[in-house]
Amino acid sequence: MVHTLAVRRWAAAVLPALLLLAPALTGCTGSSSGDPSGNPSGDPASGPASAAGDPATTGAAAPTPRVAPPFRHPIPGMPAVQDGDVYASTRTPSQERSRVRHDPAYLYVPNSFGAPITTVIDQRSRKVVRVLHTGTLSQHVTPSYDLRTLYVEASEDNRIVALDPRTGRITHRYPVDRPYNLYFTPDGRHAVVMDEEHQRIVFADPHTFKPQKAVSDRSCKGPNHADFSANGRWFLVSCEFSGSLLRISTLRERVTGRLHLPAGAKPQDVRLSPDGRTFYVADMGRNLLLRVPWDRLRVVGSTRLPMMPHGIYPSRDGRFLYVSDRMAGKVSVFSLAKRRVVDTWPIPGGGTPDMGGISADGRTLWLSGRYSGYVYGWNTRTGRLVAKIRVGGSPHGLLVWPQPGRYSLGHTGNLR
Fold first, then answer.
1. Topology of domain 93-401, per CATH?
2. 344 phi and psi, to 5 degrees?
3. Has residue 31 got a pLDDT over 60?
4. Where is the stretch described as Disordered (predicted)?
């Protein structure tokens, strides 16, 4: 009875004070509502798992690091973001994983119309080394989450074709319904297949591609490109044919937000800024580069670009975005610090630059020529076109391999 009375007296004195402090304490961790600034979609807030030797596992008091808001509450299993920089692990060739360091430096060029092939080109000699029969409407070439396999999305053949990056040859073919594009969740637990034809975003097994859950929304027609928030809790999808954007919870696998763009919009590639605060979206229909903040689903600014901007690729040092202007035959160099185009790289004689990526050393931007049948390479220091390789057909989602980084989010080499 003495102990019970003491506990009651302590509770009467202390609990009211704790209740008064509760709003302030919860305010430090962000909202648990659908607002992505705190804890989007109601997903449980959780930090990264403790590593061996970490104070949390040894009993010592762990210091609380200061984390910028976009990086708070990372999903369980996602590798920790370093130095407040989404792409910190992709800055130099020395950051290549040991498993890819000896992969041959090839370009993988899928042909979206005509011959059912993917052309493999040596980056150094700029010669075609082989032609792979990957299937009709081979759309993009995508590195797996663990970087051990490359996948070709052969849409009309209803299959994803696996390639061995060590040999550049086909190893397996997986039956998949109309794969247009392919992504992986930041924890590596799921593949995300963009089934553009059937208006579906399909969560699937990342190794077999067996469907787990399909997400569709009446506001989204033609889902095709995406990128993930800095904490991995949600991703932004571009819906080309409805001129809209969709926000989807990674953990709950459901739609948490919709944004309808003005008439004429055709959003294409989506890419997150290095600081995790801004999504950049190429609006091919209105010739704009849109800015969407990480904590609000709305357009807060735009930059006028030449005709039909399509692909977006961060420079190796994280200072610029290279935007392919498909029907203008140019590349726009966008400064992230100045938020404006600071240079333009034309293709002498014209062309149709589309999709691709940066070489591991950051010195060459490689892009497919969607309607010209060429692969183009620019020197990123001078802006001069240094390579023009004939492949024929309609080259589409070109992959530059290998790449520095710890894991792949998919598409044509979005590594973090």
1. Methylamine Dehydrogenase; Chain H (2.130.10)
2. -135, 130
3. no
4. 29-99
